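Entry type: protein chain
Record version: 2
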Amino acid sequence: MTGTDVDTAVRGLHTDGIAALRGAFEPEWADRLREDVEALFREAMARPDGAIGRGPNRYYVEVHPERIGGFLDLVTHPWVDAVARAVLGPDYRVVEIGFDVPLPGAVAQPWHRDFPAPRETVEERRLTSLAFNVTTVDTVPEMGPFEIAHGTQWDDGADFDHGMFPPKSAYPRYEGLARRKLPRRGDVSVRSALTIHRGTANRSDSSRPVLVLGLVAAGVENDRNDLVVSRAYHERLPAEVRAHLGCRVVDELEPLVQKHTIEGLVMGATD
C-alpha cells in the first residue's frame, strides 16, 4: 500500500464512485472470513428476523464485530484507514459490519442507492459515508456480480422513490455507465453507497458472500445501523480502534434483530 494507492482511491471515489485495492489480504484470510460468514448466516437464517431479505434468494445480515475474526485486520488495514481519513476526516466512525449473500437463483435487483443523498453531497459534493466491501470468493460472471453505474454518486435523487430508487426511465443511462465487478479473494473495494448500483442474477450453483464495513464522517447521524460490542471485547481493542467505533457497549451480547427491509429490493427485478 502506497500513497499513490490512497490518492488513486480518493480520486476514484470522487469520479467513478468506487475504487479498489487488489490483494489487500492473502486469499487464505478471505477463506477464513468466509467460514465465519457462513456460520453466522446459518445462525441468522435459523431465528426470526435474523436476516433481511434483499430480493429473492438474497439476504443481508448485520453482525457483532467480535464474531468476525478478521474485523480487527480490516479496520486497521493501512489503506482502509488512510482512505477513510482522506475522504471522511480523521474522526470517522465505523458504524456497520455485516454481509450480503446472493444465493443461487438470486434475481437482478432494481437500480438503487442505499439511502437518500444528504445535503452535504447534493449541495457541496462532499461524501459523508463509505462502504468497504470484501469478497469471500473469486467472483465469476455466473455468480451475479455487483454492478455499479460510475459517477452517479452525485445524482441528487429528487425524483427517486424514497430517495433511493430512480425511475425506470433513467435505467438506460445507468446501463450505459454500468461496470460489473469481478473481485477475487483478498481484494477490498470502497464505494459511496450513493453510487447507483445493483446485484445481478446469480445463475451459478454457488453463493457469493460479501462482507460490508460501513463508515461515516464525524457528526453524521446514523439510525440505519446498530453496532454493538461486548464490554470485554471493547476493552481488548487498541485505543485507536475504540476511538473510531460508533457502537453501543453492553455487558453481554444478544442476537441482533435485523431491520430496514426495503420493499423495492425484496421485490427484485423480473428480467
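Comment: The chain has a mean pLDDT of 94.
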